[in-house]
Amino acid sequence: MIFVTVGAQMPFDRLIRAVDAWTGERGRQDVFAQIGPTDYRPEHMEWTKFLNPPEFNACFRDCTAVVAHAGMGTLITALELGKPILVMPRRADLHETRNDHQLPTAKHFGERSNVDVAYAEPELSACLDRVESLTVDGRVGPTASPELVAAVRSFIEG
Questions:
Q1: CA triplet 141, 4, 111: central angle to 5 degrees?
Q2: What is the pTM (predicted TM-score) of this model?
Q3: Residue 128: CB partners within 8 Å, gap ≥ 6?
Q4: 34, 9 Cβ separation under 8 angstroms
Q5: Torsion on CA atoms 76, 12, 22, 64, rounded to nearest 10
Q6: What span, in angstroms and rounded, lies between the C-alpha atoms of 68 and 50?
Q7: Are 128 and 86 in contact (CB under 8 A)?
Q8: For the segment 58-82, what is each residue's pLDDT rounded down to a tens digit?
Q9: Please, are residues 57 and 81 in contact by the beta-carbon 8 Å criterion?
Q10: What is the pLDDT of residues 84-97, one digit of tens each?
């Protein structure tokens, strides 16, 4: 299953519409989306507006790949679980978010082999075609490394 998630704060219809169209074009029956607070109703994939934490965790655990906004929580969860992830950053000029903080996040994480980035709908279809074949280059741990903790402690303590 490809798991699509947009978070719970704002609609992200640009992503959901594009994935829904791709799902229909490819005849996929294995795409499930958490679409958030929107009036749009996907026609070609199963969906729900919101998931409770156990449902969300089950979708993440059971999926073959993740498609999402470039939110840190989603990216970190995918990296912790070793899941390939395709992100499309929300854009402020399209009123998908309050500012463009997801653009540099997507750029930074896009340098990893298991993170692909589509900045616009024309790129998304090709990225979706290859998302399940992204190479997973290892997982990140659920806690910060001892080196990072030591550096932060040193900075705080002066």
A1: 50
A2: 0.87
A3: 2, 19, 22, 26, 67, 86
A4: no
A5: 20
A6: 14
A7: yes
A8: 999 999 999 999 999 999 999 999 9
A9: no
A10: 999 999 998 888 88
